[in-house]
Amino acid sequence: MLPPRSYMTEYAIDIVNVTKRYADHTAVRDLALRVPTGSVYGLLGPNGAGKTTTIRMILNIIAPDSGKIHIFGRPSNDPKITERLGYLPEERGLYRKMQVRRVLKFLAELKGVRGKDADRRIDEWLERLSLKTPEKDWGLSKIDELSRGMQQKVQFIGTLLHDPDLVILDEPFSGLDPINSQALKDTVVELKKRGKTVIFSTHLMDNAERLCDSVCIIARGEKVLDGTVTSVKEEHGQRNVALALEGDGISGVAAILRDNALVKRADDSNRFFEIEMAPGADPQALLRRIVESGAAVQRFEMIQPSLHQIFLQKVGATGVEEGMTGHG
Amino acid sequence: MAKLWAIIKREYLERVRSKWFLIATFFGPIFFSAIIIVPAWLASKSKATTDVYNTTILDATSTGFGHRLAVNIAVDTTIPGRMPVVKVVAPSELTQAESLATREVMRKEKSGYLVVDQQTIAGESARYAGSNATSIADMTQIKSAIRQTILASRLQNVGLDDAKLKQITFIPLDFSTERITERGRAGSGMASVLFGFAIGFLLYLSIVIYGQTIMSGVLEEKTTRVAEVVMSSVPTDTLLAGKVLGVGAVGLTQQILWIATTYILLKLRTPIMAKIGAPAVNFSLPDITLGAGVLFLLFFLLGFIFYSSLYAAVGSSVNSESEARQAASPLMIMIVSTGVFIQPVLLNPTGTTARVLSLIPISSPIIMPIRMAVTGVPALEMAASLGFLVIGCVAALWLASRIYRVGLLMYGKRPTMKEMARWVSYAR
Questions:
Q1: What is the pLDDT of residue B425?
Q2: Fewer CB within 10 A of the end CB, N or C, for chain B?
């Protein structure tokens, strides 16, 4: 692995009032956010919110119209910085007709890892992800001879081969099978343990809630809220109730949940409900009504709202801006 | 620089390793040799065929004229089967003999018959009828043999002896043609036109094939999003430059291999053609100087940069192969319309059309090398052509890089011309 970096700043990414406009809409408006070094950071937002545009500006693929972006304390267009970044784009693919090893070597060379060093790392990674076993070395196959899951593994390797300090993953969980999805989570955790910073965009709140130290929710190109997951939850800590039911009687409960004096919003997952109480309403009154309706209560618990709830509350169903995809 | 090199290396090695490159490199020279040799071989067939020997001479002169004529037609009497059959007939039997000879021709036993009589000796007339009567070469040979025989008879009449006679009338003329340019002799005219055609065709084909190769390469990187990964590591212009240079180097490698093997094949054509039993073809190869070779490769490279950068721009602006084909049609029209002019330019390489087309960057990479192959091009015209082409390349690269860096990140519907014009104005 690379020798330790000579400097580490407090923030891996520091975005100051960045705006990016396209001809017919503003993709990102006056965005400011800071990603602490060594954290796992989630960039959350509906499709078309400006996540991909933000990521592309961090990567210096596109330049902001105004504002500044610093990566590890240096301007994002500093060529030296790119070698410390690893990027996995959304909807991934690789050169189909190219041999796996050669693809990886190419990606390594673009990040300044060359020759024997690159070969050794490729071997390590291929073995680690079981793409190279005593029976079969998939490294010698062409990309299009690999299964979809194996191709995804090759893409992880390509992203991490040069041991980046900052790993940027755009919608990493979309299209992953459960095994690779778990492998990715393990990898993120391991990267964090090794002091790396990971930032990923997603609209899957469950993953974000479990993995992220901090999050930023953006919609329509603007920041809605940001902070550590704990602080975000505390700030938006209305009295929420988790309710799980057993057997019949769900239909009776549904009527109670529609009572606006008691319930402001209920997220109905059939047998599980996340309920936001109406202002001033008493959760105990709600519990009594449900028990009286004859439903078998399996769980009734006062909880902090999930990111999913906060997201829905803050962004709502209208948070998706009409616009060209790819500006997301 | 190391990253640019990585991109060039990938483009180059991946393509050179492909089986299409091997196939094209192998069959190219065979194809180009065929283009040059086959027409030359056909041209050599304009020499008289063996049909002239398989004729009957109906001699109604009663002076032995027919026998002497037969010897002159045969030219070389030591080769068996080259002597036409001579039938001496009385003038009154001529009609009957002719109808007999006609039937022989109809049965394909003979290719024709020749009637010689007193008027022939007088140098007034002779008649030939046969299946090869339309063959100019055959008829020319028979006619000159008759002239030669008449001349010999007349010389004999004034008292020349046989030996002298042979000495005077034996003229085995082999007529070959050669072209002269301002720079001197330049090989046979036919070969040089064919050579020009082969060069034009080669450039035309290479630009179309490699232009489209670049286009689908760019499209693949865009649709697989590899482009984004690469763009997060190197500036877009470096990626574009690496692609153009890498694929350009592949094209250059192929050109050099093609030219070298074609040249060797043509040099060795006599033994090769003897092996496959074809008659030898006589023509001298056009004299290509090293300077001309370098200029030719320079035109290829510049023409390639001009077109491939535009093809890359097209590839970056679309989302599928079928869209790409449509979007590339303006480029295709530019190239094909140049291709249409290859023949007119070959026929008149110093005309206004040729001179104008060799100045416009759209057509000059194909037209100028053709002109160079068939005629001398003044240095000033050459410099102007190269100058305009370099300017064209810079303009094409500038335009392409601006479309490319925006197009690569745009997904969804194909952009209109207006949108693409707006991309060009984007800073980045």
A1: 76
A2: N
CA distance, residue A217 to nearest chain B CA (Å): 23
> Which member of B229, B412, B427 has the closest CB to residue A89?
B229
A50 touches B at CB < 8 Å: no
Residue with tokens 């393509």: B15
- Tell whether A222 is covered by a domain: yes
CB of A87 within 8 Å of a chain B CB? The answer is yes
The pLDDT of residue B174 is above 70: no
CB contact under 8 A, B6 and A96: no
Q: Which CATH number belongs to the domain containing residue A221 in this structure?
A: 3.40.50.300
Tell me the per-residue pLDDT of B121-134, one tens digit each, with 9 for 90 and over: 888 888 898 888 77
A302 touches chain B (CB under 8 A): no
Q: Are B10 and A325 within 8 A, CB to CB?
A: no
Q: Is residue A151 part of a domain?
A: yes
* pLDDT of res. A25: 83
Same structural domain, A106 and A247: no
**Same domain as A273, residue A126:** no
Q: Is residue A64 domain-shared with residue A170, that is, in the same domain? A: yes
Among B138-152, B154-168, B303-317, whose mean pLDDT is lowest? B154-168
A59 reaches B (C-beta below 8 A): yes
| Containing structural domain, residue A134 | 93-159
Give the domains, in start order, of chain B with CATH numbers. Answer: 2-43+183-425 (no CATH), 50-169 (3.40.50)
The pLDDT of residue B61 is 86
Q: Which residues of B touch A89 (CB under 8 A)?
A: 225, 228-229
DSSP B164-219: HHHHHH----------EETTEE-S-HHHHHHHHHHHHHHHHHHHHHHHHHHHHHHH
Count of structural domains, chain A: 3
Contact A198, A164 (CB under 8 A): no
Shortest CB distance from A87 goes to which of B18, B223, B232?
Answer: B232
CB contact under 8 A, B226 and A95: yes
Test the B interface: residue of A19, A60, A62 with most B CBs within 10 Å: A62
Contact B228 A56 (CB under 8 A): yes
The residue count for chain A = 328
ipTM for this model: 0.77
Tell me whether A270 touches chain B (CB under 8 Å).
Answer: no
Q: Does residue A317 sit within a domain? A: no
Question: Would the CB atoms of B6 and A326 count as touching at under 8 Å?
Answer: no
Residues B258, B262, B263, B264: what is their CA dihedral angle, to the nearest 10 degrees? 110
Q: How far is CA B63 from CA B117, B165, B227, in A?
A: 9, 17, 92
Chain-chain contact of B225 with A56 (C-beta, under 8 angstroms): no
Residues A147 and A294 in one domain: no
What's the gap in Å between the CA of B342 and the closest CA on chain A?
A: 36
pLDDT at A306: 82
Q: Do A106 and B220 touch (CB under 8 A)?
A: no
Running DSSP on this structure, what letter comes out for residue B84? Answer: P
- Strand order across the A272-277 sheet: A263-268, A272-277, A240-246, A296-303
Q: Is A91 on the interface with B (CB under 8 A)?
A: yes
Among chain A residues, the shortest Cα distance to B238 is held by A110
Check whether residue A242 and residue A291 sit in a common domain.
yes
pTM (two decimals): 0.72
State whether the Cα torsion A131-A133-A135-A140 is positive or negative: positive
pLDDT value for A319: 45
